[in-house]
Iron ABC transporter ATP-binding protein (Deinococcus aerophilus), 269 residues
Amino acid sequence: MDLQPDTPVRSGPLEAANLHVHAGSFPAIRGVQARFEAGSFSAVIGPNGAGKSTLLRALLGLNRPEAGEVRLFGRPLAHWSRPERSRALAYLAQSEELPGDTRVRDVVALGRGAGDWRFGLLPGRPWTAADEAAVDSALARTDTRRFEARRVSELSGGERQRVALARALAGEPRFLLLDEPTNHLDLAYALEVMRYLRCEVAGGLGVVAVLHDLNLASRADTLLLLHQGKVLAAGAPHEVLTPQNLLAAYGVRVRVVRDADRLLVIPED
Ligand SMILES: Nc1ncnc2c1ncn2[C@@H]1O[C@H](COP(=O)(O)OP(=O)(O)O)[C@@H](O)[C@H]1O
Ligand SMILES: [Mg+2]
């Protein structure tokens, strides 16, 4: 699915520039500067209430900034039309409700933008062979094709999360933003989600995932640590996951140890 022909720039980062966003009347994001690259896995971390979900929604254009702006490919998000924006950016919300009585393939097909309730309809666009191919590809890349005829209600939690991922990927977004995608999954399924996301990143997708588990987050390319609506640290995992930063953000003393090419965060308490 191509962007509109009048779209001047087709690639580049997703950025927050001096972003201030309210959640209700609460100033949840207070002057955030951040840059997320295509082909990179970024994780947003921070304690409960730090503003992670609010930031993600602002990056998607789902809430309006009080000040500052979000830019996609160097162009203010506010200047993008809604269909353009929803093609470029996909969202996996925190507790994604998939319709239980719907077959997997039909759920994934919704990701083509022909009826996604969150972003509205793309009126009058007929279903094409390209749509069919994109659905096939998303099913194949998430290993959901073998149960494409089953109903969502017949799937395990891990399988459902893969279907939600397939639906998001079917729209061929440039950036995928996920809010705690591994939350209700056991370790094996959580690692599986990370593996699927890694493959997509290798193919050029920009992934921005809110992650609670710091040991999972340490597998990302870059981390953004939020605290009380501000960026406490940003950069490579070894730069962000330091005992000083984690004490400041979470109020917990930790040791950070390197194990082969991984970082492990171990609470001292
Ligand atoms: N609708 C709302 N009204 C008032 N405060 C809110 C609302 N939604 C969120 N908040 C507050 O905004 C802050 C950031 O929330 P959120 O972005 O959900 O944080 P996180 O995802 O990091 O846990 C929290 O302190 C939360 O209590
Ligand atoms: Mg949240």
